[in-house]
Amino acid sequence: MTATRTPGVPAIDEGSLISTNPATGEEVGRFPVASPDSVTEAVTRARDAAAWWAGLGFDGRKRRLLAFRSVLTNRLEELAALMHREGGKPRADALVEAIAAIDHVAWAAQHARKVLGRRRVGSSILLKEHASYLEYLPYGVIGVIGPWNYPILTPMGSIAYALAAGNAVVFKPSEYTPAVGQWFVDRFAEIVPEHPVLQIVHGLGDVGAALCRSGVDKIAFTGSTATGKKVMAAAAESLTPVLLECGGKDAMIVAADADLDAAAAACVWGGLTNAGQTCVGIERVYVADKVFDDFLNRVVSRAAKLSVGAEPTDDIGPITMPSQIDIIRRHIEDALTRGGRAALGGAEAVQPPFVSPTILVDVPEDSAAVQEETFGPTLTIARVRDAAEGVRLANATGYGLGGAIFSRSQGLDLARQVRSGMTSINSSLTFAGMPALPFGGVGNSGFGRIHGADGLREFTRPKAVVKRRGPTVLAAMTFDRTEKTMQQIVRVVQLVHGRSK
Ligand code: NDP
């Protein structure tokens, strides 16, 4: 049965969370709200499941995760349709997101043994009769808290890696996208029916807060910086480790030697895809003086062609979270009041639940549109003397998540100078689709890494083991040592470490 409600505003009715389509208000699904006790019970069940799941070993988990990957792949269209209905995401954006998530499941499954499995490492010259072993063991139960803007890709960036490492997971999806979360958790349960290795708990922010205090062994949070601070404060009470993937204000730098057409295309896509509701979306652009006018014209002409609407085939869908519209409007109005100019769109571009592409120029660097996360289909484009000045301004916010550089000759040098976790050269957002690369930020964008080998290790504790293989050669770490042995040891150390080269 479907009912029409206030578009996009989740409601709680008789203990159920109701999710709605942000454009039409159509009810998408109802999900039981978890009480604090039921969150704790889920974690208790997860602990038993974790022991069983870890016991499957790398190969057993790999088989299950690859089967899960196949189910997601074979039901891609169904998943994308649900993502469109619940989040308003255009079908193509939903497909791109889901495919990236599938890639992560496969990568994590296929690389867990190599990255985490037991290996011999070198021993000290003074302890040659010992063998050293290193392996990465699962924490146990991971609490994953996810946002709504990428309802499968962002949680999967933690879930797939946590599962491949041998943990069980209790997942709290955003109140705006519970249906997508429930859908993929159900698919996993079809592949792993024996134990609740991946569970979901629904509700508002208080359910996320309960998960932080539920006794999980680590919290992987993706969401806003403000909530990330609350999560870290709650986790501090029990010294629970946290991984924080928070907001961003990513910049693109366009050098004078850039391929301007490619830069304009990547700027429009990186800034406006998913209606700009992307943590690593391009929000600010710094363009070398020499090519500024040409670049701006190309961006405006491309952005003006994008369709905005609720159809799955539109380029830009609705703003998923209605309260974000006020932030987007405030940033545009503030920029225009403070001397900025709209090269496209402007205040009238905000027509809830839609916002049309808005390109702002001459915006003061200290304004909200440049300093704060806008999370809408808007871009500020600023003229700079050269790419070096672009880097300086790119680094002048508290955030440091991703970003992009366009230059034919200086890409790698400039990328290193940008204070962020990821940079794409001559493209935008592409680092998010590379499972082998770590993903995460610095400063207000958080800390810790998902994806890649670092993402696997994030959900483990390193275990160091030293095993004696034979009789003691140089007896230093015993009260049986003699003065003669100590002199021998000093001679060996001087031989090994005493030279300046
Ligand atoms: P929020 O911070 O509002 O919410 C994130 C999650 O935290 C939701 O599930 C939310 O539940 C939950 N939550 C709310 N309050 C608490 C609490 N006190 N304790 C624990 N959990 C709580 O973020 P949004 O959902 O609005 O997501 C958008 C933000 O996420 C943007 O800032 C974006 O940049 C960032 N993001 C970062 C990414 C990254 O990888 N760095 C990727 C994607 C998004 P509920 O929804 O029920 O309130």
From TrEMBL:
<dbReference type="InterPro" id="IPR016162">
    <property type="entry name" value="Ald_DH_N"/>
</dbReference>
<feature type="active site">
    <location>
        <position position="245"/>
    </location>
</feature>
<comment type="similarity">
    <text>Belongs to the aldehyde dehydrogenase family.</text>
</comment>
<dbReference type="InterPro" id="IPR029510">
    <property type="entry name" value="Ald_DH_CS_GLU"/>
</dbReference>
<dbReference type="InterPro" id="IPR015590">
    <property type="entry name" value="Aldehyde_DH_dom"/>
</dbReference>
<feature type="domain" description="Aldehyde dehydrogenase">
    <location>
        <begin position="18"/>
        <end position="465"/>
    </location>
</feature>
<feature type="region of interest" description="Disordered">
    <location>
        <begin position="1"/>
        <end position="25"/>
    </location>
</feature>
<dbReference type="InterPro" id="IPR016160">
    <property type="entry name" value="Ald_DH_CS_CYS"/>
</dbReference>
<dbReference type="InterPro" id="IPR016163">
    <property type="entry name" value="Ald_DH_C"/>
</dbReference>
<keyword id="KW-0560">Oxidoreductase</keyword>
<protein>
    <recommendedName>
        <fullName>Aldehyde dehydrogenase</fullName>
    </recommendedName>
</protein>
<dbReference type="InterPro" id="IPR012394">
    <property type="entry name" value="Aldehyde_DH_NAD(P)"/>
</dbReference>
<dbReference type="InterPro" id="IPR016161">
    <property type="entry name" value="Ald_DH/histidinol_DH"/>
</dbReference>
<dbReference type="Pfam" id="PF00171">
    <property type="entry name" value="Aldedh"/>
</dbReference>
